[in-house]
Amino acid sequence: MSNDRSTGRIMKAGVILAAVIVILRIVLEQVGAPGRVNLIFGVAWLYFLLPICFALRIASAGEASPFKGLFKDVLLFGVYTRLMVMATYMIAYFLRWNAPRFTPKMGGNIDPSIGFLQGFLWIPVRNAVIWVVMVMVVGMIIGGITLAVARKSSPKAAA
After folding, report:
1. Signed CA dihedral, 133, 134, 138, 139: sign only
2. pLDDT tens digits for the chain (159 residues)?
3. Mapped to the 3 state alphabet, what secondary structure does 50-110 carry?
4. Is 0.85 topped by the overall pTM?
5. Are 73 and 54 in contact (CB under 8 A)?
6. How far apart are alpha carbons 69 and 158 in whole angstroms?
7. Where are the domains of the chain?
């Protein structure tokens, strides 16, 4: 039970942080902050950090199926965050936000030639699916390495 609470706290903190970053980025984009500033405020950075946190929690808990737990945590975190970002693309379509990430050149959906189904549904869903796959690959590599190292150096593993 404590393992579930620990995972829940890490997940909850990560999702809250991601929501703050998503909102902050939208605000910065809308006030015309430079592109380099906006790149700093992206949830993609969390895909390198949270798998490490998940892996360390799993290693310290001595779970029976650690890689299965890591897979689940990384997948859930990826889905939660990408749903938030997907919503921004849907809103951007209706409000015609002009941030570079919403242009077709950057994989976005803001262009007069893009119809409703493509702009509101297809492009945001496609981007979310692609990103969830990338999150899983990156998260499992980083988290897997962290988990392997942490388990190897753990006193429980040595016993």
Report:
1. negative
2. 445 667 789 999 999 999 999 999 999 999 999 988 988 889 999 999 999 999 999 999 888 899 999 999 999 999 999 999 999 999 999 999 989 999 999 989 999 899 999 999 999 999 999 999 999 999 999 999 999 999 888 765 444
3. HHHHHHHHHHHHCCCCHHHHHHHHHHHHHHHHHHHHHHHHHHHHHHCCCCHHHCHHHCCCC
4. yes
5. yes
6. 21
7. 2-158
